[in-house]
Amino acid sequence: MLAELGWGWIFPPAEPLPWGNKAQVNAFCFFLLFFPFRATSCGSTPEGDSQAQSKKALKKQQKEAEKAAKKAEKQAKQVSTMGSWHEGDFAKDQYGVPPMFQSQEKLDRVLVRVQDLTAEKAGQLLWVRARIHTSRAKGKQCFLVLRQQQFNVQALVAVGDHASKQMVKFAANITKESIVDVEGMVSKVEQKIESCTQQDVELHVKRIFVVSQAEPRLPLQLEDAVRPEGEGDEEGRATVNQDTRLDNRVIDLRTTTSQAIFRLQSGVCQLFRDTLSNKGFVEIQTPKIISAASEGGANVFTVSYFKTSAYLAQSPQLYKQMCICADFDKVFCVGPVFRAEDSNTHRHLTEFVGLDIEMAFNYHYHEVVESITDTMVQIFKGLRDRFQTEIQTVNKQYPSEPFKFLEPTLRLEYWEAVAMLKQAGVEMGDEEDLSTPNEKLLGRLVKEKYDTDFYVLDKYPLAVRPFYTMPDPINPKYSNSYDMFMRGEEILSGAQRIHDAQLLTERALHHNIDLEKIKAYIDSFRFGAPPHAGGGIGLERVTMLYLGLHNVRQTSMFPRDPKRLTP
Amino acid sequence: MLAELGWGWIFPPAEPLPWGNKAQVNAFCFFLLFFPFRATSCGSTPEGDSQAQSKKALKKQQKEAEKAAKKAEKQAKQVSTMGSWHEGDFAKDQYGVPPMFQSQEKLDRVLVRVQDLTAEKAGQLLWVRARIHTSRAKGKQCFLVLRQQQFNVQALVAVGDHASKQMVKFAANITKESIVDVEGMVSKVEQKIESCTQQDVELHVKRIFVVSQAEPRLPLQLEDAVRPEGEGDEEGRATVNQDTRLDNRVIDLRTTTSQAIFRLQSGVCQLFRDTLSNKGFVEIQTPKIISAASEGGANVFTVSYFKTSAYLAQSPQLYKQMCICADFDKVFCVGPVFRAEDSNTHRHLTEFVGLDIEMAFNYHYHEVVESITDTMVQIFKGLRDRFQTEIQTVNKQYPSEPFKFLEPTLRLEYWEAVAMLKQAGVEMGDEEDLSTPNEKLLGRLVKEKYDTDFYVLDKYPLAVRPFYTMPDPINPKYSNSYDMFMRGEEILSGAQRIHDAQLLTERALHHNIDLEKIKAYIDSFRFGAPPHAGGGIGLERVTMLYLGLHNVRQTSMFPRDPKRLTP
User: Fold this and answer.
1) What is the pTM of this model?
2) Could B496 and A103 be called an inter-chain contact, meaning their C-beta atoms sit closer than 8 Å?
3) DSSP output for A470-495
4) What is the ipTM of this complex?
């Protein structure tokens, strides 16, 4: 019943609204004048090798973008002045721009989700709130694609019993990315609509109201932002480069690809925590402002702290170990980690999310390695089983092979890896650390030999690990430490930690670490400490490598690197 | 079978261990010499009003502590030189200090948890790893209390078939807080052991080995640290003051009370996330290093960021709203929040954990208020149903009334609260903010009238809220904003946000905010933004107030305030 009443019911014109109907319309015009448009003709530029696209095509594209922008501006002005169209229009209460949503009334109207618009709903008159993804006017008809997150549906406004000529014009002029409330009849279509996720139905629009109007010139086009790299190069169609994306992250995050990436990432966190909670781990919260640089002093950000200075934690390492010494037995934490590294690579961020684990063990640190690898396997399985839509959505833009893993997880020792690399022609010392290219090469060799994208490299040389790493009991040149790899890139670094204050002191001195600065840490081990091990996982890397993406900025919502602090 | 082999099997003496048997024992002596003992005679001092304890009692207590510490040192020396006792001792393989756990061997021995030592296990010979909580030698017997997290059990080493005189002496001399592996027969006791959580059984020890030895002088005594305030004052028994606790947090966290507090807090996070995930919320990760102070510029920490400077986020506010503009619809995040406030109160921290929610709504922000209150109610119910042991453990030291809440949650409007306060004799203006004492008084009035410890205060005066708060649609002096309270203290602040770039600009100018600095934020609303609302919850406050504690430092593992940066 209420659904029949339309906007007039929610916003009775007699009501003295502070931001009322007319005022709103005028305000919108002011808004258009007040804010200078962005210089967006370069907003969509080719990604990667610019030579792939001819200059001519680029020019053509710029011209088209300019033309489209002008048209959009004109349309927006028409929408914002639509008040004048109402005279003599039989459908005048069925469309418009209502006043800003200020919680004026509670309305008992159900909004149906776009993904639920299926053939079973045919014949039902329903309300939907969605964005205008595209619109195309054609004579007395206007075709809209309505988008909601990863899903979209076609809608049709056609002159007839329910829509006037003015209403169709109004609909056609709503700017892309505006949010609208649409009431429409769900109708089966004869031919599948290939360009939409809801392929079997379309909405025949009876009413359409603008909830929030987008400025006419978008800094990037969503169609461009989801185009696979390379595709469309020949026709001069654009993709969007990374800086344009990140400068306009709020729009870039609306693409089906971004929606899928970050919904899957949310799943990684959930699977991580659920698996560990089921294993009896306790979640802890560790401080990020610390009095001494946790890992030696290099690459640390300094914070002004009242009359003194402090640092941003490079890892929760010391704190999670203190929790083990404080009898929490098995702990995990999820939180930001800060590294003041001036590295501008595809896989370094100055702030990332650490998934950290620390665990007391009974006899051997492999108990911990097994707990961690099992957790990773549970994550991989959970993603595979619960996020198939998201994986396929990302694959459309960034094709990659499905992620492969073994059960139990493959564990190689460092000397074996060195032997494999040497056999492949690499020259390196037995106790030398792996370079990034050698890590990648090793990943390919392991994939060839064992058919897995995930493995553990165990027993690293002691010399290349932090001072708190437990030495191997037999060969003091090696250590009880390990890294884990996904598609040939490191995602976790971990070790058995030294739980004995005396040995820890010796090792810190060996590394020339100022004992005074790590006093609280070493003191934690003086009053009984269980043997323990752990590791830290980079969330953005896990998401990136699971999906086979190539830049960690794609899996950080608002990435931070030496050159980027905004948005 | 393997369980029968003892330590000799794990650490065959013939094996050339770098930190081998003998070396380890000698090293331990060196360790005792190398590290100066802490000046701990003042480690345990009375809490609160020192006049409650007479000077005489204090002196007596100091003297006793000194005496106990000297005895402990002597004992520890005896344990560390226990090698010499072995000669002629039939039980010499059944006790000792094995070499440091370095993952020498994988041992197939099951360790049973202390909480699982019940009467049903009587007659079984089991291994347990636990701390020496207390020990008391008495003739040919030594009674140990073995503690594991919140649980403890009595163990008995008695001269006889399985233990020699030397073995009993060895056990009696193990320092408190050392970690031991004990093999013992579970035996029913005739009289309940009131001082232990496992009251029906004790362990008759057959073997005992020290896994990790604690230094003999503890900076605080765990018995003192769990003593209820006030109790024992007459007898001159000590409690531990807050600074001593926090300076030695690793030991303070071992108390049953701390174990219970932080296990329950882990539950708060889990319940928060699980409830929201079930409601379709997506977890997001927001940056903590930001280029402009998010809430105006006061109370913000500055970070050196390569050649420029940046700030620590005072809330994820702007980013979670950007996620709403980016179509994530309903989001939450859990992460650190930084406030450079020079407030040294019981409820302020400079770094705390924010549980943040932001949600697009259909018609009215009360949809969001209901989502949040329902989430809080799910948390309260979850804690009540799943953490009763923890609640009761904390109540032993800090008694409080059970936390009360209503369904549906009580929602009062600001004017009603002002009326209640005025009726109770408070003089205040209608649009004046609530002072802390008035908040507390209001909490008491609400409890009396409605019998609830949790309620929402809605429709705050616009003037006392941040610039991005949506004004009320009818009365522009009020706003669509709310706080939530537990036991009379604020735990959440939230509002409908302005989703219109123009109004947002006006309100920012009204608050004298530099538009240039919040450009990225305002720009987020230019391309279509759904109406939305949200709120931020302080985790430490929720834990504190749910448990009826009185200082937020009790519910922050490693609290940060203007005067504390360590540990």
Assistant:
1) 0.88
2) yes
3) PBPSS-TTBBSEEEEEETTEEEEEEE
4) 0.88
